[in-house]
Amino acid sequence: MLTKRQNLLETIRGGNPDRFVKQYEFMNLVMEAPIGAMVGPGQTIKNGWGITFTWPEGQLGGFPVHDDEHKVLKDITNWRDQVTAPAIETSDEAWAAAVAHANAIDRNEEFVTAFVAPGIFEMTHHLMSMEDALMALYEEPEDMHDLIDYLVEYELAYAKEMTQRLHPDCIFHHDDWGSQISSFVSPEMFNEFFLPAYKKIYGFYKANGVELIVHHSDSYAANLVPAMIEMGIDIWQGVMTTNNTPELIKKYGGQISFMGDIDSGVIDFPGWTPEIIFEKTKEACERCGKLYFIPGASHGLNFGCFPGVYESNDEAIDKMSKLMF
292: alpha, beta or left, given left = phi > 0 and alpha = psi -120 to 50? Predict the structure, then answer.
């Protein structure tokens, strides 16, 4: 029986896996790194960038507050006066828990995986609101290029500290690039503003010991797959069914792999049942096949929004492995 790591590599390299990869099983996520304050259920916080986040009770996630009082960046043309990056934590004490976790992972079995969020596109609209960020790409492209460069340099500085301390061989990087039915920007605009940014970021990780780049975008982004390949993404996690995952596998398998094809909204809700989860998992596995595909919910971490969903999805994948391998 292959290890989790071996089975993953056989799957994404077009080899001979002996079972389906079960969701996040190959990634041992190191979540203790000092990446900045993150909002939790029922909380309202302000992070080091000055962005206020709130997560109302009963909702599935948090989001920045963008009224006039809380918006950090009110005028893109004055971003240099309004946006200040927080200091990157460099003390041994701050990194101690993350280092201990990374050192305890069996790298023959799992990938030591660093978690990075939010991404560059998300940072632009976290600072100024989604509407303002999208408008600025059209109206003030030079300032947006400069702001994006500033955000990239900050992540590269964090990446240098993190890779030197944790020596990860996988990066799990968030940046949502679309809605359920379309990307937020056209491929042409994406290639102008965000492809160069991520070529720098993911190029740095690959040059510093990272074997695997897993990028989360639970959205439609089929039109951005060529850019994902160019920037060095190995696995796109969060692929929704609206992308026509089997067609993507047929067209791009061997250049990139796809993780998801089970929309969280149809299995991860208060009235979920094991039968619903198995039905959707079976559909995904049968239509996508054994190679260049990892079945799992489109949700962006290794847990469900409702108790028992993630574990039931694992069980459904085990059943499909017995049926198809």
Answer: left
Cα–Cα distance, 95 to 99 (Å, whole number): 6
* C-alpha torsion angle, residues 132, 134, 138, 142 (rounded to 10): 80
Per the CB < 8 A criterion, the answer to whether 218 and 300 are in contact is: yes
pLDDT (tens digit per residue) in 141-178: 999 999 999 999 999 999 999 999 999 999 999 999 99
pLDDT at position 37 is 78
Q: Residue 91 is part of a domain; what is its CATH number?
A: 3.20.20.210
Half-sphere exposure (Cβ direction) of 67: Cα atoms closer than 13 Å: 2
Q: Whole domain around residue 9: which residue ranges?
A: 4-324
274-288 and 309-324 helices, crossing angle to 10°:
40
Cα(26)–Cα(6) distance, rounded to whole angstroms? 9
Instruction: Name the token pair of 19.
Output: 């079972």
Give the separation between CA 225 and CA 215, rounded to whole angstroms.
11
- Helix 120-128 vs helix 141-166: angle between axes, to the nearest 10 degrees? 120
Joined tokens for residue 89: 């934590």
Structural domains counted in the chain: 1
Distance CA 128, CA 325 (A): 49
- Which tens digits make up the pLDDT trace of 62-81? 899 999 999 999 999 999 99
pLDDT at residue 5 is higher than 90:
yes
Max CA pair span of the chain:
60
Residue 60 reports pLDDT greater than 90: no
pLDDT of 257 strictly over 90? yes
Block residue for tokens 């079995």:
109
